[in-house]
Structure formats: C-alpha cells, structure tokens
Amino acid sequence: MNTRPVGNFQNGFGGGRRRFSSPVIKPKDFKGTFKRLWEYFLDEKKSLIIVFLFIIITSLISLLVPFLTGKAIDSMSIKNNLVDFTALKIIIFVLIISYLIDAVTNFLQSYIIASVSQKIVKNLRKSLFNKLQKLPISFFDTHSNGDVMSRLTNDIDNISTTISQSTIQLMSGAITIIGSFIMMIVLNIYLTIASLVTIPLVFLLTRTIAKKTKVLFKNQQSELGKLNGNIEEIISGNFVIKAFNQEDKVINEFNDINNKLCDVGIKAQTLSGFLMPFMNVINNIGFTITSGVGGILAVKNMITVGVIASFISYSRQFTRPLNELANIFNTLQSALAGAERVFEILDENEEIEDNLNSKELSNINGDITFENVYFGYSEEALILKNINFHVKSGETIALVGPTGAGKTTIINLLSRFYDVSKGKILIDGVDIKNYKRDSLRKAFGIVLQDTYLFSGTIMENIRYGRLDATDDEVKEAAIIANAHSFIRHMKNGYNTVLLENGTNLSQGQKQLLAIARVILSNPSILILDEATSNVDTRTELNIQEAMLKLMKGRSSFIIAHRLSTIRDADTIMVIDNGEIVEKGNHFELMNKNGTYYNMYSKQFEM
Q1: Distance CA 147, CA 360 (A)
Q2: 392-to-311, 325, 415, 582 alpha-carbon distances in Å
Q3: Which domains does the chain have, with CATH numbers?
Q4: Is the pLDDT of residue 208 over 80?
C-alpha cells in the first residue's frame, strides 16, 4: 500500500485533530533572506557569468556613447565655424556599431536571464513541494490549505517576476554607476562635486520609504494567503453554504478579508509609488545645479560645450540607475516578503527520522499492543491517558465512544502520524519506532468516512493502492469490493474520467472505489474509520460484505457510531475522555449494563 492513507489528510482520519489559525510571523531580516535566495542563484552561476559579461559589454557601450557624443559636438567648432567631417564620420560609424552590439547583447542577456529565473523558481518550488511531503500532520493542523497554496504559487511567482525584471537592472546599474562616476571625475571634478549634492537626499528617501514598505508588503502577502484560504474553504463547502442559506454570511466574510487586502495593498503600493516622483524632483534639481556650474565653467573657458553635454549624459546615467535601484529595492521588498514565507515552511521541522537501527516491517502477524500510552498536543492537554490493550493476530477491534473521545487519535498513533507522548506501541513485539516509517504505513489499509479520489480515471484511482498492479488485478479488486457492477455500467467503464474528488460519483460509489483501492494494496492491518456512515442501507450491505472478505485473517480496527456494524467484533473498547472505560465483546458489555449498554439501547430504543 502507498504510504499515504486513502483519504484527505487535511481532515484526518475522520476527525480527532485540532485546527488552529496560522500565526502571522514577523518578517526576517532583508540580508538573511536575500542570502538564502542567492544560494539558488549559485546553481545557475554559469549562465549568470555569461549574463554578467553581456552586461559589462552593454555598460561599456553606454559609457562610450556620451563620450563620443561630446567629441562629436566638439568636432563642430562654433567659434571658427569649422566642422571636422572625418572625425565626425568615424564617431557616427562607431556609434552605429555600438548601438547594434548593444541591441544584440541586450536580447541575449534578456533571454538567458528569463531562462535562469524560471529554473530558479522551478528549483524553489520543487524544494517547497518536496518539503511539504516530509512535514508531519501537525503542520497541516496549523496551516490552512489556501495559505500553503498561496506560498507555493503566488509567493514563488512573485519571486520569479522580480528575478526576471530586476537582476539585469541590478547588475548593469552597479556597473553603470561606477563607470559613470569615473568618467565624470575624468571630465571635470567641479561638475562631479556639484552633481553629488543631491545624492544624500536620494539615499535618505529610499531608506525611509523602503523601511515602511517592507512591513506593508509582508502584510500584503499574509492577507493574500488568508484570502486564498477563505476562497478554498468556501468553494469546498459550497453545498453546505447553500443548504443553510449562508451566502450572505460568506460574502460578508470574504468582503472583510478582501477589504483588508485592498487596504494594505493600497498603502504598500501608494507609499512605494511616492518614490519615483520624489526621485525625479531631486534629480531635476541636481541637473539644474550641474548645468549652472557647467555654464559658469564654459564661460571661463575651463571646459568645452562637448564636455558639458557628455557630463550631463553621464550625470543622467549616474542618477538613473540610482532611481532604478531605489525602485528595484521596493520590488525586492515584495519578493523577499514572499521568499520569507516560503523559507518559513522550508525551516519547519520534518517528521522525525527513522532510528539508525530501524528495520523493515515485513512478514507481519498483526499482533498489536498499546502499553501505558499517553498523548497530547501539549503536556497540559492530554487527549489519551494510560491506554492499554492487546490485539491478537487476526482479531477485530472496535472503538466506540462520543466524538472527540480519542478514537481516531489511537489510529493516528498506531500509524505514526503522531508519536506517543509517553508509553509505547508494539507490532509483533517490536516498538513501532524501531520500524521504518514507510514500511510501517505500507502495512495498513485505511478506509475513511470521507474518502478522497483524484482527478483521473477510475482505473488510475483504484491502482493508487498499488501502482504496479495490472488491469486484471484492478478489476478483481473492484469485483471483491462490489464496485465492478456500477463501473461497467458507466459510459467508459474503468476509463471513466473522474472530476476532482470524484464529484461525478455518489458518496456510496466513491466509498466502494476507496475500498477497492485498499483491497488492491493487500494490507496486513485494516483500519475502517466510519467507512459505512455516509452510504445507504443497500450500499452498506455491499460494503460490509466486501469488508468481511478483506478482514478475514487480518488484524482490524473499526471506528463506528453505528453499533450494529460492530456486534461481531472480537473486542469492543469504549473510549471516553481519552480513557478506555469498558472492554469486551458485545454480549459481555451488554451484560454489564454500563456505558456500552446505554449507547446501544439509545440507538435501538430497547
């Protein structure tokens, strides 16, 4: 059997797990998150080196053009009314060649960086998805599906967009700033000093706005995760919403979350939008100062008009990347806010690794023992208290009791979706912690109250129990599960394509397919968690008939509220408030006139 039980983990084995709202965690530091993200860049360092070489070429061209433009202006002497056409032709030819080279290198670097960004986010998404498969059930208890999906899609897509749009600007901007500054000093030191007057204002403005937008963008991503979770929940529960006429309620809930997202989005985008207009004002002031100083120096014959033209171009090249870098810094805030949310999951504790001396669970007899087992999500809130029982190979054990008593928790502990807080669980005399977790879970066949079917054909869904099964083996399992009859009457038989979670089937048909899936897996230990509670009487008889075949010779656990379905169990354990209050077969418990007797009497009005 596949290591995952047949059913939806998010709902547990029919309940018994608590769900908490996901806490909003404070943002991590910019440098730390950027450093971790940079590790993914290093996997593509060869491509990045090529991009960097192209950026150097384009940056050198951008530095060459203003210099040549100044020389072209100086080749036309206004004072003597003479033009050096030879020099002018050479300069124009060099400019044309430079622009052609610039166009080609820009295209190539854009193509390569697009490929790099997609590979980086592919690896990041792969790391996150693989991590999700290694996380314990407790993680999914504390995080909504929508929020996890938002991190896997929206947050990573945000990172992808930033990488593709900002990487080249960051690299070329840095080179252009350094190169332009050097050329400015070479041309005239006084003009350089004049152009630097406004630089402190640029850094002060950038730092102030970025500090505020960092928090806002983080909150925006968090609210987006909440919105996704709300939408996922509403769509999944649409039938219940309509059945109870709660459309207005869910609309109001959605509007509340949507309005919060809108408000924080407006604040984040508005504040970050202030940056460029303010930067343009500061830059225009700087150009005015530079032009004024340049005019004074030209009048004094300290520089030529061509030098002024070149210097203004370099000054623009110097401040333009500063503007872009400031804008990119805002974009990075949003991307790193998403990256932080991704890394939060990557930093989660995985399921405890198997012991070094763990062994495969094989040739199972099915002898199961619980010894002084305690379990709780915390020491102060114990769910199970001093559970002791023994199941002989081939016996059937029924667990009954009120909702929340701890029945499902016993099953979760047996299959090691949780580990005991105290005590131990033995299978064939060996503590289950000494078995490899995968081999342990393969030993179980689980049929849940709310089964889960995947998009695909009926054949594929049954084969999920054992992927190497032949078509004949799949059909044989369906026959044993009493599912073959309705399958063959469907238009495409076993090749009928199911919608998400089998919504084009009845609940009873879905349950029969789930049973066929377990039969195909041929488990050593069987767990039935309210397997017949959602079906009609006729389908229940078909399921019970299939279950009797499957349970034969196997240790079986049955969780049931319909006490009529467990009368023939070898042992019935009544669980209440995390403790075993009664134990025995049906007739023994009825003769005690205790809890089980009262439960049975109320159901059948004896």
Answers
A1: 36
A2: 91, 70, 17, 18
A3: 36-346 (1.20.1560.10), 368-604 (3.40.50.300)
A4: no
